[in-house]
Design brief:
Blueprint: E1 3-8, E2 17-21, H1 23-28, E3 34-39, E4 43-53, E5 63-64, E6 67-68, H2 77-89, H3 94-101, E7 113-116, H4 129-140, E8 143-145, H5 146-153, H6 159-167, E9 171-174, E10 184-191, H7 198-207, H8 212-227, E11 232-233, H9 234-240, H10 245-253, E12 257-264, H11 283-297, E13 302-306, H12 312-325, E14 329-333, H13 341-351, E15 355-358, H14 364-375, E16 383-386, E17 398-404, H15 422-433, E18 436-441, H16 446-453, E19 458-462, E20 473-478, H17 479-484, H18 494-505, E21 509-513, E22 522-525, E23 542-544, E24 549-551, E25 558-560, E26 573-576, H19 580-590, E27 596-599, H20 609-618, E28 624-627, E29 640-645, H21 649-652, H22 659-671, E30 682-687, H23 693-700, H24 703-717, E31 724-732, H25 735-753, E32 757-761, E33 767-768, E34 771-780, H26 786-802, E35 810-815
Parallel strand pairs: 2-5, 13-18, 13-19, 14-16, 14-17, 15-16, 17-18, 20-30, 21-28, 21-29, 27-28, 29-30
Antiparallel strand pairs: 1-2, 1-4, 3-4, 3-6, 7-8, 7-9, 10-11, 10-12, 22-26, 23-24, 24-25, 31-34, 31-35, 32-34, 33-34
Helix pairs in contact: 2-3, 2-15, 11-12, 22-23, 25-26
The structure holds adenosine-5'-diphosphate and zinc ion (ZN).
Adenosine-5'-diphosphate binds near residues 281, 285 and 636.
């Protein structure tokens, strides 16, 4: 009898592939194990076993596998079930889900991999454009494959670029990075026993007067020890004393310091002290907690609608505690993990090392480690906290899922496939595990509230801030009028200026929100009207003053700021609009004594970028924090009494049916950073259009008003949550081919769905990285079967793909696009 296995390959294939195995292998192999298999002419992939069987494939002869990679399954049955749902619902291949779901260390490939050389400092200005694109991509993703670079640069022959990058020592090539996970040894340092007493220490410092560097190290070590009970890493000491490892080494050689190694988990847990007691809930929290449990009994996903600072987190904590008592695992999903140091330390205070963080910025090995801990149900990873990808952990006994800030758009993966919504996929995950699921927000998405209204979701609410703190007082300022009356100082109205002044005098802190980074989004010549555009994308270049550069925010193209206009040659370039850099600069002139920080994509690169800024602000080393929407995400600062929104209009005027809902959410969330302690906070919203309905709703905290109005609009125009939508994007570098192809496809769609098809239309930025884009929207009315709709679309795609002229046009599905 012949034996076969069906496997999932980590590539966008519609079907599973069959390989032949020996009887002994068939005996050993279980679904969820990985095997290395040959594919195509020369490729080797690590594939995931789906089933073992005895049915030979009919259309091809099954090849043999190379080897078995695991002793026990690394992926569970429940996960496979979940992945198949994602692939089916979001119209992508199971291979694409596989590829996204597992740590990349699980995906052995015989391809060349490109890695960044982290050993040298790179001057970005020295790089040519194509070199910069690769370099930039490598700072988002630690490993790139040849085909990925080829698509980033949009050309087939990328060898010249790679050779240049190799010459400049910027990249490293690896044939295959599959490495077994190795536990990591960390170097720690402590004072030698001989110098523990104060006397001895003083003697020591006296003896070191001629070696100021060494004495600095000793002092720093003492300070570090005083401020923390944790062991001190050599690297931390180096940083704290700004000294070299040689200095530390010489102290070790003199037996003044002792070095020791500990085999640690790569993900370090801070806690070696007793866990703190949970806080007891106030009456509103308690009521919400009970309501949630009632709904959980009915197995309903439940929405916790609690105003900002109402203490939702403490309610989550109680639910987690309960889940742990029943010996089950808990998953805590957040929109962006980088912004949640505050939350993580809060959870670690309560649950110690039971908290595991799954983080895209962690190394591949660190991720493998969390994966294995979850898979083996270690107590060390009983609570997994992470952004959307944490959803893919191999849970054994999932009891509770919390989706915090459920309204956040970043829960939806935009690119690449699977383009899944983590909130919705989490509901399915909870269902598969028969686990409870709670969605929390101060500003629930219209979708979720709609699901509450139609009885799909349970509901609980907390309408008061914790500790009787009042909601902030929100004031709308008309900048049109202020400009007319010449009351503006730069982009600051008189009202905002005076409030900042007063807040600083009271030694309180200010947050200022402007949803654009850089100095100015547009540079324009006042003589001829020309404004520099990105050569690869259809957008204006944004001016970044710190680097004296014009940059594209879509593809990272950048050039030095030209002295004169490229078109007419006159030196009359001027800026239009303003971003965070400009706000920061104006502030510096208006408030020369204030310490100002900026938090946006440009200042938060690197693993600890956010933490540094957040900590500095928390410790009141900064008086004013200027930032983009990163500021909105659940931060809890004690001393902020004023929040200013520089300009609400760009949000409100965004061309999308969700723009108003989003503006409400964003503004309410930013406003919620104000006055989280006793004193009532103040919020000032500047706008050219202060009578806008949304601004009124924000200022009166009228969520229901916003919801009803938005729902009415959606009903009128047949948008979600009333209808479902699928967006299809066509992508190609040839403008007319794209147009033709999109027309052809849309015609097919119109035949099937008639008036429910909108487009094709160019999006606001119609060309990105030299690829033109065109969108079609399909609205799916209530009652129309979603699977049937998708099947019809797939059928049209099949005929479309059969036309060789269109073969190179990419078709991208985005189900429930947001
Ligand atoms: P939310 O997540 O709803 O914005 P938080 O959970 O951050 O609100 O709570 C706001 C503040 O109130 C936090 O500083 C938190 O420590 C405090 N707090 C909330 N609930 C309690 C409680 N039951 N006892 C003591 N402090 C609480
Ligand atoms: Zn560009």
């Amino acid at each position: 009898m012949l034996n076969f296995i069906n496997v999932i390959l980590p590539i966008p294939l519609e079907k599973l592939f069959t390989y032949s195995v020996s009887a002994a292998e068939a005996e050993f192999i279980q679904p969820g194990m990985r095997v290395a298999v040959p594919f195509g002419k020369s490729k080797i992939y690590s594939a995931l076993v789906h089933e073992v069987h005895q049915v030979p494939p009919t259309v091809y002869e099954a090849k043999e596998i190379h080897q078995i990679l695991d002793e026990t399954p690394v992926v569970t049955e429940a996960q496979l079930k979940h992945w198949f749902w994602i692939s089916e619902y979001y119209m992508c291949s199971i291979g694409e889900v596989f590829r996204t779901a597992v740590p990349s260390a699980f995906l052995l490939e015989s391809e060349t991999l490109i890695l960044k050389n982290t050993k040298i400092n790179i001057d970005e200005l020295e790089l040519l454009d194509d070199e910069f694109l690769v370099y930039e991509a490598l700072s988002h993703q630690s490993i790139l494959r040849v085909h990925e670079i080829s698509s980033i640069l949009d050309k087939k022959n990328i060898l010249p670029v790679l050779n240049r990058l190799l010459d400049k020592n910027i990249i490293i090539l690896k044939e295959e990075v599959y490495e077994q996970y190795k536990p990591k040894m960390v170097r720690y340092v402590r004072m030698s026993k001989l110098f523990q007493s104060e006397e001895k220490l003083e003697e020591l410092l006296n003896s070191l007067t001629r070696a100021p560097k060494q004495s600095q190290v000793v002092l720093s070590l003492f300070q570090l020890q005083a401020s923390t009970k944790k062991p001190i890493k050599v690297s931390d000491l180096e940083e704290a004393s700004s000294s070299s490892s040689a200095t530390i080494k010489s102290l070790v050689n003199k037996n003044i310091l002792e070095e020791y190694f500990v085999q640690t988990d790569r993900v370090i847990y801070l806690n070696d002290t007793e866990n703190s007691d949970l806080k007891s809930l106030n009456e509103y929290q308690q009521k919400a907690f009970l309501d949630i449990q009632e709904n959980f009994k009915l197995k309903k996903p439940t929405l916790l609608h609690g105003v900002t600072s109402s203490g939702k987190t403490e309610v989550y904590v109680k639910l987690i505690e309960q889940c742990l008592k029943s010996k089950k695992q808990a998953l805590y999903l957040l929109p962006e993990i980088a912004l949640t140091t505050q939350l993580i330390s809060r959870l670690q205070e309560y649950f110690g090392e039971k908290v595991a963080v799954y983080h895209s910025k962690y190394s591949v090995q660190e991720r493998v480690e969390v994966w294995n801990n979850v898979l083996t149900n270690k107590s060390k990873a009983q609570i997994v906290i992470g952004a959307r990808s944490a959803l893919f952990m191999p849970f054994k006994e999932l009891g509770l899922v919390i989706v915090d800030e459920e309204h956040e758009g970043s829960f939806k993966q935009y690119d690449p496939a699977p383009r899944y919504h983590a909130r919705d996929a989490a509901i399915v995950l909870a269902h598969i595990h028969n686990a409870n699921i709670l969605l929390g927000s101060a500003t629930p998405s219209v979708e979720s509230f709609y699901n509450v209204e139609n009885g799909k979701y349970g509901y609980a609410s907390i309408l008061k801030r914790f500790g009787n703190v009042l909601m902030p007082d929100i004031e709308l300022v008309d900048i049109k009028e202020q400009t007319r009356k010449k009351r503006m100082k730069g982009h600051f109205s008189e009202r905002l200026f005076l409030e900042i002044e007063e807040t600083l005098q009271n030694k309180e802190q200010v947050i200022l929100f402007q949803n654009r980074r850089g100095f100015a989004p547009i540079v324009e010549c006042t003589t001829c009207g020309h404004s520099p555009q990105c050569p690869n994308c259809d957008v204006s270049l944004t001016y970044h003053q710190y680097q004296k550069q014009l940059r594209c925010h879509y593809c990272s193209y950048n050039i030095a700021l030209p002295l004169a206009c490229d078109a007419c040659g006159v030196a009359t370039l001027d800026t239009k609009g303003f971003g965070t850099e400009q706000v920061e600069q104006e502030l510096q002139t208006l408030f020369p004594d204030a310490k100002i920080g900026r938090m946006d994509l440009d200042t938060t690169r690197g693993k600890h970028g956010y933490e540094k800024i957040i900590t500095a602000f928390e410790q009141q080393e900064l008086d004013i924090l200027v930032g983009t929407q990163m500021l909105t995400k659940g931060l809890d600062f004690r001393n902020v009494s004023l929040v200013g929104i520089m300009n609400a209009d760009t949000l409100l005027n965004f061309p999308d049916f969700r723009a108003h809902e989003r503006s409400y959410q964003l503004l309410t969330q930013v406003a919620g950073r104000a006055g989280r302690t006793q004193k009532t906070g103040k919020v000032i919203i500047q706008s050219y259009n202060p009578y806008h309905q949304i601004l009124k709703q924000v200022s009166t905290g009228d969520y229901m008003g916003m919801y009803k109005e938005q729902l009415y609009e959606r009903q009128q125009h047949k948008y979600p949550p009333v209808n479902r939508i699928i967006k299809i994007t066509f992508k190609h570098k040839d403008y007319s081919k794209l147009n033709e192809a999109a027309e052809w496809f849309t015609k097919g769609l119109r035949n099937s769905f008639g008036v429910h098809v909108l487009g094709p239309e160019f999006p606001p930025v119609a060309r990105i990285r030299n690829q033109y884009l065109k969108n079609v929207l399909i609205k799916i009315p209530v009652g129309q079967s979603l699977p049937k709709t998708k099947n019809s679309i797939k059928r049209i795609e099949k005929s479309f793909n059969a036309i060789s002229h269109y073969a190179s046009v990419r078709v991208i599905y985005n189900v429930d696009y947001i």
